[in-house]
Specification:
The chain is built from 3 helices and 14 strands. The chain is mainly beta. 40% of the residues are buried.
């Protein structure tokens, strides 16, 4: 799948702060949701999902020394931060996006990460954009409906929606010597869908489409598409915005080293923590 409405999803950007991606839970059962085209048991109708999410999907056009390629992206904040795939903008000399209404805007690459195949780009719109709502991909279950919106085959097919099921979760695939844990779907994903959203039945973006498994001379493959889960990578996207690269999660730990026992400190007073967490005499 290569190069080819609610502001609660991201806090507003100010002059001294950038937006951060926020994850929303599934809507709770509430009769008041009926006016918003929600059926909290079954989700939204496909046409309502398209109306909600399509304004937040863009085509991403990258120009490299080898020519022009295109992919997709999803608007994260109303001031123009857009999530896409690293391989969509990798090596780009210039990047532009086409909004769902056909408007073209120049884009700046904010940050990329080859290991996760994520990237964030930024446009400067003349008016507020429609930011997508992001959902908790950890709540997905195999068998539930899923949708993809993007530009399969290039910009001429922009704003295409396809539908299917969540086929599997936590699917480990080895890509270029690195293991990626992905969502598997049979919603049709093709070249140009990369960087676009995988959407749940509530119109929430739960993944970033990144690849499909293609047929070979010996094997015929259909309906094997994959997306990067948004819940486990939200902090990476926030890192790309804040630092231009992924810094990784903060870890807490302790280190232990031998301390000589002297008459002053006394052996009985010297304790260190062993691997099990219990106190043991020092060395």
């Amino acid at each position: 799948g290569g190069n080819a409405n609610s502001d609660s999803s991201a806090s507003a950007s100010t002059s001294d702060s950038a937006p951060t991606l926020q994850i929303n839970s599934k809507p709770e059962s509430d009769s008041s949701n009926s006016s918003d085209n929600y059926d909290t048991a079954d989700g939204m109708a496909g046409e309502d999902i398209y109306k909600k999410v399509n304004p937040s999907v863009v085509s991403v056009i990258s120009t490299t020394s080898e020519g022009t390629g295109s992919g997709s992206g999803v608007i994260m904040s109303k001031d123009g931060y857009i999530i896409t795939n690293n391989h969509v903008v990798d090596g780009a000399q210039s990047v532009s996006v086409q909004l769902s209404d056909g408007t073209s805007l120049d884009a700046e690459i904010i940050g990329t990460d080859e290991q996760t195949d994520l990237a964030v780009i930024k446009v400067t719109p003349t008016s507020d954009l429609t930011a997508a709502e992001f959902g908790d991909s950890d709540e997905l279950e195999p068998g539930e409906y899923a949708y993809a919106i993007g530009s399969p085959g290039g910009v001429q097919f922009a704003n295409t929606i396809t539908g299917g099921r969540i086929s599997a979760i936590n699917r480990d695939l080895t890509v270029n010597d690195r293991v990626m844990t992905l969502i598997q779907t049979d919603a049709s994903i093709n070249n140009g869908n990369s960087g676009g959203p995988l959407i749940n039945v509530y119109g929430q973006v739960v993944g970033i489409n990144t690849m499909k498994m293609g047929s070979s001379s010996t094997t015929s493959v259909e309906g094997l598409g994959f997306a990067i889960p948004i819940a486990s990578t939200a902090y990476m996207i926030n890192d790309l915005i804040a630092y231009g690269e992924v810094h990784g999660e903060v870890m807490i730990g302790i280190s232990v080293q031998p301390v000589p026992v002297t008459a002053e400190n006394g052996e009985s007073a010297l304790l260190v923590m062993d691997a099990s967490g219990s106190d043991s005499p020092g060395m």
